[in-house]
Structures are given as structure tokens and as C-alpha cells.
Write a structure and sequence with these properties.
Elements lengths: L1 H17 L9 E13 L5 E13 L2 E12 L2 E14 L5 E14 L4 E14 L4 E12 L7 E11 L1
Antiparallel strand pairs: 1-2, 1-8, 2-3, 3-4, 4-5, 5-6, 6-7, 7-8
Length: 160
């Protein structure tokens, strides 16, 4: 058990040492996000989960994509979005970020629409490569009968 613990700790330290500058040009991120605690403009409850990945074109500026599934009321939908993220106000433990995403939001009944996702949050780095990200977002689907929603959530990302 002690050997396993030492291997895990050594691996985390090695990965951390390899990527001390995690939001710099040429680096990547991958992660998962969950949203909920819906404060929408309708009586439907919004809950979503998604996977995301991105590439830093320059220091603090990343382009990426996100694929997810969300539930609102009795409807279920899928989203596929491209996004741009900008990280600012860096501290010793992380950075504030803003993200703008645009893409397709499709319901299981076949209806699809263009959607915009505006998100902000804080990447709190628990190591140099692992971040927990509390987020707040505004999801705007452009489909008749669907309302925009304000959501709170949390993400988990790896930066390398």
C-alpha cells in the first residue's frame, strides 16, 4: 500500500513539474462540467453535463469545443459548441476566465437551434495541472418555446 501511495504521489508531482505554466501558448486542456441550480426564466429545471477540450493559441487565450447533454423539464437535449476562453486576473492559485460558446442545441424530438453559451468562472489549481472550476453561465437557445437560463455549476479540468 505504501508503494502504491508513493507511486501516485510521485506521478502527480512529476506531471505538475512538467506543466508549471498551464495557461500558456501551446498548452491544452480537457475537462468535464456539470451545471444545475437553474435560475431560468421559465418553470422548467435545467441540468447539464458536458465534456470540453481546448488549445491555447496564445498566453491566456484558448479555443475549444464542448459536447454535452442537458435536461430541461421533460425535454432532453444535446449540444455541440465551439468556444473561445480568456483567462485574466491570475493569482497564485488560479485565474478568472470568461468563455463564449456558439453552436447547435438539439432536442431528442429532432428540433434543433442555434445557441449561445456565456460562461465565467475561476480555475482553482489544486496542482499545476488539475483545476476545479466553479462557473456561472447564461445559456441562450434560439428556438421557439425554449427559454434562456442562468446556471451555476462546477467543472474539473486537466491542463498540460
Amino acid at each position: 500500500m505504501k508503494k502504491l501511495f508513493l507511486i501516485v504521489i510521485s506521478s502527480v508531482l512529476l506531471i505538475s513539474a512538467l506543466s508549471a505554466q498551464n495557461i500558456k501558448q501551446g498548452n491544452f486542456y480537457v475537462g468535464a462540467r456539470s451545471t444545475g441550480l437553474d435560475l431560468s426564466f421559465s418553470d422548467k429545471t435545467y441540468v447539464g453535463i458536458s465534456a470540453a477540450a481546448g488549445y491555447f493559441l496564445m498566453d491566456n487565450l484558448a479555443i475549444g469545443g464542448e459536447v454535452g447533454i442537458q435536461s430541461y423539464g421533460s425535454d432532453t437535449g444535446f449540444k455541440l459548441m465551439g468556444n473561445v476562453s480568456y483567462y485574466f486576473l491570475e493569482t497564485n492559485s488560479g485565474a478568472v476566465f470568461g468563455r463564449v460558446g456558439m453552436g447547435v442545441d438539439q432536442e431528442t424530438n429532432g428540433d434543433s437551434s442555434f445557441a449561445i453559451d456565456l460562461t465565467g468562472g475561476y480555475s482553482f489549481f489544486i496542482t499545476d495541472v488539475i483545476a476545479i472550476e466553479p462557473i456561472a453561465g447564461f445559456f441562450i437557445p434560439f428556438e421557439k418555446g425554449r427559454d434562456a437560463s442562468f446556471n451555476l455549476g462546477v467543472g474539473f479540468s486537466l491542463y498540460f
